[in-house]
């Protein structure tokens, strides 16, 4: 129900000089005028006494009215700025709710701003990212997205695709000339240029994501090889549960740390072995998801018995970047631990790193190896904040452009090229929210804090 009037405390809980109640929707003005007993004029700061329906005095402060559509949400908005104490704010909010508003869900103000066309989805997400920024550079990147820099890049790509589609579809009408049209260099070179732009954007989005979220790294391997011990080693503190019994890390555990200046999130996974009890099965499913989402996997093996096979998860979707690590070197006689490196279907086998989570042997080399794999060339001045969702969508765009290029090379029909471009364009539209499912919207806005 788009026109229900919503209200929330917009300032963080706790004490502060000022606390703000934000009201948005058709009844906002009426509620604001009842609370203040004044006629509210748009954009005028009006000093008022705030009273509830029973005329009890609750607080005094400033009322501000923004007339639709010139407000954050695009609807009528009233802000009551009172004293920033928890009880004062609660009493004001209760009075506003009693007058007919309902409590806003997290992110609902921004969701309305999106639905009313005040901003696109990328910008709405940037609002949340800006609020959640943990570093100055992350805040700068979120501000760039909020200012529309990321959206502009996406729109430019979209325009290029539309241009190509128009060209190709117009040519489809002259089907006898189709062969000439496809083998002519123009369309191929335009596609190549587009492909490069998409790759560049994907690269930047990846960096933006890392800036905001940290690089995802996942620890995989059989139970008892020492994943939790290694995690603790890396964290420099005992935080994951370590035990002698196989399969103790039932669920995935995520920790954040900084590796050579790069923010990283490491996930310790449940064992990858086949399990029949339900809890462990759920854990295994989450392991697969964690591996899919990770930029790098660390495949940990027990150097004292290296019979385990390479986990299937590492071969998903054409292969995941991983480092093979042999743990428990302290248990090894030099010669006993020289297992042959695992054959990976002709693909170059990763260098094996030898460590001991127990003694700390090889940990520095491992950290250096991790840093080497996850370092991006940062161009911080041009990075915009981005999310996993954007990166995934751009990967789909890249895939379809690649397909289109191949269609041209193999002299496939123009219809196929046009179809690939259509799919690429759809995926771009998902990023800015031009077409997006309600489920996705719920997921995105549910992550906001209340009052934003
Ligand atoms: P996980 O199931 O893969 O998370 O393995 P844990 O970290 O729980 O470790 C399983 C067992 O191996 C524990 O008893 C650890 O103390 C032991 N362990 C882990 N790393 C080493 C190591 O480098 N050397 C030795 N000797 N034992 C280790
Ligand atoms: Zn564990």
From TrEMBL:
Q: What is its EC number?
A: 3.6.-.-
Does the record carry GTP-binding as a key word?
A: yes
Molecular function as annotated in GO: GTP binding; GTPase activity; metal ion binding
Sequence positions that bind (6S)-5-formyl-5,6,7,8-tetrahydrofolate = 22, 79, 118, 452
Q: Entry's SUPFAM superfamilies?
A: P-loop containing nucleoside triphosphate hydrolases, TrmE connector domain
Cofactor entry: K(+)
Main localization of the protein described in the UniProt heading: cytoplasm
Domain of life (superkingdom): Bacteria
Function of the protein: Exhibits a very high intrinsic GTPase hydrolysis rate. Involved in the addition of a carboxymethylaminomethyl (cmnm) group at the wobble position (U34) of certain tRNAs, forming tRNA-cmnm(5)s(2)U34.
Give the protein name, as stated in the record. tRNA modification GTPase MnmE
Organism expressing this protein natively:
Ostreibacterium oceani
Q: What is the lineage of its organism?
A: Bacteria, Pseudomonadati, Pseudomonadota, Gammaproteobacteria, Cardiobacteriales
